[in-house]
Amino acid sequence: MATRSTNRSGEETVGTRRRADIERECRRLEQTTPFARGAASGYRWALGRDQEGPVTGVHAEGPPGMDLLTAEVDAAVVRLEEQPRSSVPHDHIQGVHDALAWVCGHTEDRPS
Fold it and tell me: What is the pLDDT of residues 53-82, one digit of tens each?
């Protein structure tokens, strides 16, 4: 279930990040590599622009809640462990993972 969250300043948040910061990161990515396209798809789903999770295909109306975001990160970890490092899908899933891990606050490192 999607819910709108705000931080102490009244700014809309997705996961643990300000929506405006996620929007900025999504625009910043040059989507020329599988990794960057994966990160962008993670951001779009987190923002509620794509209705299906980029790894699981789970349906969300609007921005997914923290439970769905975290589940998508976990699914990406499982897929990464299954995929050979030299495959294009691995790079795409790594981008999804890194973007959503940042959105969830699991890391301070934004995908680049």
Answer: 999 999 988 899 999 999 999 999 999 998
CB 45 within 8 A of CB 62: no
Name residue 12's beta-bridge partners: 6
How far, in Å, CA of 73 to CA of 22, rounded?
16
**Three-class SS string for the chain?**
CCCCEECCCCCEEECCEEHHHHHHHHHHCCCCCHHHHHHHHHHHHHCCCCCECCCCCCECCCCCCHHHHHHHHHHHHHHHHHCCCCCHHHHHHHHHHHHHHHHHCCCCCCCC
Copy the structure tokens of residue 90: 């691995």
Structure tokens, 17: 């990040």
CA distance 45 to 40: 9
Report the amino acid identity of residue 94. Answer: Q
